[in-house]
Structure formats: C-alpha cells, structure tokens
Design goal:
With 145 residues, the protein is of the alpha+beta class. The chain has one domain (12-144). Helix content is 18%, strand content 36%. The chain has three helices and nine strands; from the N terminus they run ββββαββββαβα. The protein has helices at residues 63-66, 113-116, 127-144, and strands spanning 12-18, 21-28, 32-40, 54-60, 71-75, 89-92, 100-104, 107-111, 124-125. It has a six-stranded mixed β-sheet. Strands 6-7-8 form a three-stranded antiparallel β-sheet. The protein is globular, with a radius of gyration of 16 Å. It starts with 11 loop residues before the first strand and ends with a helix. The relative contact order is 0.19.
C-alpha cells in the first residue's frame, strides 16, 4: 500500500500567480501560509523574496498546489519550532456571535471582543479567497501611504 505524501511541508516556499504577476508565501503549521509583502512582475528566486516582511497569515486549502497552479520552489526551515506556528487568530461563535475564542497552536480559549480586535479570523480559505484577502490588504496599504 502506497502512503500519500502531504501536499506541502512546513517551510515550503510557494509561488502563487497573482493576476499576471507573482506573490510568494511560506507554509506554516496548522495548514497555514504566511504571504510575503512583495508582488513580483516575473517569477523570482528564493534569495530575492523578502521573508522578513509578511503581508498576512491565513489558513488555506492547498488544492492549487495539488493541481499545479501554485508551485513549490524550495524549502526554507523556520528558525525555531515556535516561529513555524501561525499567530493567534480569533473564532466568532456562529450560533452566538457575541462569543469569541482565540485559537493558537491547536488550542481554543475564550476571549472578549476587545481581545480579538486586531487578530485575523481563523477560517480556512480557498485559494481564490486568499487572493481576495491579499487584494484587500495590498489596497489598504496603498491607501495608507
């Protein structure tokens, strides 16, 4: 019996088509990706990707890696196991929208609305939803400058 390999490994660098340009991200734990804050006109090599400038971190379905639309261009291990985890994210209760939790390292803890105010929502996005979030973040940056 053949055992299927995971689609992505922690530390894999993904090349993500972004319109007619490219953006890059690194796979973290909990099926998440940190997307770097630079859009490239053409495909880049690993050394030109600014890994210290993260635009966003989100959980994502890696179906576009499976299909070949997103490609793995290399693997850069995290400096520590701690840094391979995504940052804390919030969950809003669907049945009682006034209840919140903070999700971090596989654990969920109750929180107030104030405590989750500046956190990303802990939802697993489809690739097109991640691209929409990237658009929103980049647009927000443009308006701020």
């Amino acid at each position: 019996m053949k055992i299927q390999k995971d689609v992505c490994e922690i530390g894999d660098i993904l090349c993500i088509p972004y319109g007619n340009k490219f953006i890059y991200g690194r796979v973290k734990r909990d099926a998440s990706i940190e997307v770097f804050n630079k859009v490239f006109d053409s495909k880049a090599d690993l050394n030109s990707i600014p890994m210290n400038k993260v635009l966003l971190t989100s959980s994502v379905f890696f179906e576009d890696v499976e299909s070949g639309r997103w490609s793995i261009i290399g693997n850069i291990p995290f400096e520590s196991e701690e840094s391979s985890w995504p940052p804390p994210m919030y969950i809003q209760d669907i049945l009682n929208p006034s209840k919140y939790s903070i999700y971090y390292k596989g654990e969920k803890n109750k929180a107030s609305k104030d405590e989750v105010e500046n956190l990303e929502e802990a939802i697993i996005r489809r690739p097109w939803e991640l691209l929409k979030l990237i658009d929103d973040k980049l647009e927000k940056q443009k308006k701020a400058h």
